Please model this.
Amino acid sequence: MIDIRAEQRTDITGIDDIIQRAFGSSDEVNLVRLLRDAGKSVVSLVAVEDGRVVGHVMFSEVAIDPPHDGFKGVGLAPLAVLPELGARWVGSRLVRDGLELCRLAGYNVAVVLGSERYYPRFGFSRASDFGLGNEYHEVEYFFAMELADGALVGLNGTVRYQPEFSETNC
Model:
């Protein structure tokens, strides 16, 4: 059975391994370490099976330029799961649980740069439909969703991730 729970210090090596295997580079590993060390991780969850980390997701705050009153956003990145467990819905459970924890923490918008086939199943829609862009100028693979009703109404601008994303080429 796979359990989803908050990241613990003893999970760090396993998290690093999962991310390295999923992305094939150390950029995302470094990103997670920098965000964690700077206290910028809002939610960091692991999927654990038989005491072994098999998946990980992290959320960190995002800003919008120009600023909008009441905007409290979070970015999903990265999400990593052992490739052989993809068919067991581990990533979906991590994303759903993480989004719910962000909502409960008072965040009202979530964004993600990712697959147009994967993220809409959670309620994400193309961010440009809401007048949102991002600092990477990505349109096709940039998505947003409301964590609170009406949070995207009248919102427009450029979403900015934490500086650690640029520092690690993520």
About this structure: Helices lie at 12-23, 27-37, 90-104, 163-167. The first helix runs from residue 12 to 23.
